[in-house]
């Protein structure tokens, strides 16, 4: 009997203990949960490809780096063949190597003092440049060689692209010649290269190389000499025929060289010097930098609907710079969709697999974005008058004596957080905390929250835009609609050009692209003056108004009503297999690659699985 009573007492105590634990769990505070955006929810359903490759971002930056192009162009135009250069290369050894090159080439490669001086000048001043060029050549040369082999063009012509553009498909000369092969607008049209507002096929490696091959074939049929073909490519066939006449009918390049334009006089020797350095780079201690992506590791896919590079980069977790490198012919970083025509997107093969496996979801996301698209930032800049901040205090600020007419109560349910509740009632998180005397974002399950709303729903609290670290900042607010009741806040980050700067180095410094810099500053070329003030970024933040459409949004999730205004607490992230700094930064709104590198003392972008990273520290 006593045993039964003791057992009963223990059972009752155990039950009470369990009940108290359950009650404690119910009342336990709920930590804020990160609300998935539409983009993240789409990507979470993607079929993953295990063959993901790591992108070497340093090599990718060669796309936006025009310093080699500028330097080589200047060399070819100003190099003096008659000035002896002090560089260790015995003349007799050079003669032997040139003779060996000549034996296996259809070009007439002969030694002369001018050529020796140019080769030594390149060796003395351009070793590092050629190391980078050789990395790029691993991607472009197979494209050139395949096309030239089909048309029976000497494969050595591939070195001409180094002389012309430093293997940069975005290179634009002062005269407007564009692309790897530097076609002028008229010549591009003559050889059926498409040039319109969206596309410039002079920058397309495949199509521009085919046009170059076509030109070379025609010029060889005219001159029957490959050196004269090169000279005509630079100065035009008319200047070559004039030089032949002025020389008394001689047809050898070195015989008519002094009668050609000054730039062309250094053009063919620069071509031979480039060929020599590529052929004998090991002997001179030039070590090619590593090129991660090669042409055979990429593939193309037909794009059915218009898509921006940003949309593609967000969906496939890849840098926009990589898309620009692989698809340089798209001028506005947009793949257009023309009726009756197909446009193609070149991607790494692992990204092709992801794209093709999830096409329907990708196009659904693009359609969703187009339906919720806001006015582009640049258009907002144009329609927004510059000047002092403009505020309509009557419609934007809540009057002190305004009577609050409507108070509602909301009971916190499982899965709720302040952000989701604020979105549901179209209010600010800060107001929710003030109305309910909350000191943090934590809310208890079952708690009743007070929600206040005005009869005059036009009164809205203006959200402060997030400010990025900047060299210089200018802030302006402007009216951007015909009815004067849609407002935006504009913040610009400016940079003053210093000696040695170019658009590529500035873009790299601020984590942007040359195309964006040119668009922000209305630049028609890549030339920038010393001391010029450049806008390196613009933030356009919308001030929400009733019965008005959004004006501009810099967020990936521009279709969302509101963005969380509270700062994310510091947390640790453990690197997973396949992660890159770019993909990690996309997981945290407002966090950039530069932030992660600064918080964790990372100098390059080399991270390893299992590595602990501090986020928002």
UniProtKB/TrEMBL annotation:
Entry keyword annotation includes rRNA-binding:
no
Q: Which organism is the protein's source? A: Flavobacterium panici
Task: Indicate the secretion signal residues.
Answer: 1-24
Q: Name one GO biological process term.
A: peptidoglycan metabolic process
The alphabetized UniProt keywords are: Signal
Cellular component terms per the entry's GO annotation:
membrane
Annotated SUPFAM superfamilies: LysM domain, Lysozyme-like
Q: Return the protein name.
A: LysM peptidoglycan-binding domain-containing protein
Q: Please list the residue ranges annotated as the LysM domain.
A: 408-451, 493-536, 571-615
Q: What family name appears in the similarity comment? A: Belongs to the transglycosylase Slt family.
In terms of InterPro entries, this protein maps to:
LysM, LysM_dom_sf, Lysozyme-like_dom_sf, Transglyc_AS, Transglycosylase_SLT_dom_1
Determine if Acetylation is one of this entry's keywords: no
Molecular functions (GO terms): lytic endotransglycosylase activity
Query: Which domain of life does this protein belong to?
Result: Bacteria
